[in-house]
Amino acid sequence: MTTTPGGAPSAETVMDDAAQPIRVEGVTKVFRQGPLEVHALRGVDLVVDQGAFAALAGPSGCGKTTLLNLVGVLDTPTTGRVIVGGRDVSSLSRGEAADFRLAHVGFVFQAYNLVPVLIAYENAEFTLLLRNRDPAARRQIVEPLLERVGLGDMMDRKPHELSGGQQQRVAVVRALATQPSIVLADEPTANLDSAASDELIDLMLELNRELDTTFLFATHDRAVLDRTPWVIRMLDGRVVEDGASR
């Protein structure tokens, strides 16, 4: 993973480069609040390689979540390009963006975002339901993943019957069920105690190695950053340090 050098490659080069599932080129993002303009991102250039396990770090308001939202095609840049999986996603229609997210991107949210009336298995298979996979195919994918994350005997429990760490494991399985090339996580350990946080990072690192899935997450948790192979530091809407792999 490296920051983009001064001379950006051609679109053709980018589209052919499967080894770089995320490329951000000269991206700015301006939010308007009445007459005011809030500059959330100020010319961000970044490349994330296939199979990376990387964290966006920095204080609140530095642009971490905004950048994740652009990479996850939840928003569009004001200027610049965001290329994910070889496709320029900077100006997709709402429907195109939804289809792209479902096919290529998994999300792990700070608040878990599990459906309270569904059991763990049903929450984990939810993205596969959206992709119209048949019940047998869903079970073939979801059950081994739940077993893999230590929830094989808790598939029939509802979220309120699970600890915070267990709920976040269900969320990780849901993110991975569609076999995305990229998993994005915004402060995934924020609601966990230190032991559950360590367990979650262990799990995500193991899955990253085993599946070669690219993980990019935002965090300000020092304990998490100390265990992350690649740290990208942001300040005032800019990437100020693209750390070497440790």
Give a description of the structure.
It is a single chain. With 246 residues, the protein is an alpha/beta fold. Helices cover 35% and strands 26% of the residues. It has nine helices and ten strands. It has helices at 11-16, 64-71, 94-104, 120-124, 126-130, 135-148, 164-176, 194-211, 222-226, and strands at residues 22-33, 36-48, 53-57, 79-84, 87-88, 105-108, 182-186, 214-219, 230-235, 238-242. The strands form two sheets. Strands 6-7-8-3-9-10 form a six-stranded mixed beta sheet. The longest helix is centred in the last third of the chain and has 18 residues, at 194-211. It starts with 10 loop residues before the first helix and ends with a strand.
Précis, in short:
With about 250 residues, this protein is an alpha/beta fold.
Q: Which consecutive residue ranges, at least 5 long each, have pLDDT under 50?
A: 1-17
Label the structural class. alpha/beta
Mean pLDDT: 88
Helical segment tally?
A: 9
Main beta sheet, described? 6 strands, mixed
State the share of residues found in helices, binned by percent: 25-40%
CA gyration radius, whole angstroms: 18 Å
Largest sheet, spatial ordering of strands? 6-7-8-3-9-10
Distance between the termini: 12 Å
Shape: globular
The run of helices and strands is HEEEHEEHEHHHHEHEHEE
Count of strand segments:
10
Strand coverage percent = 25-35%
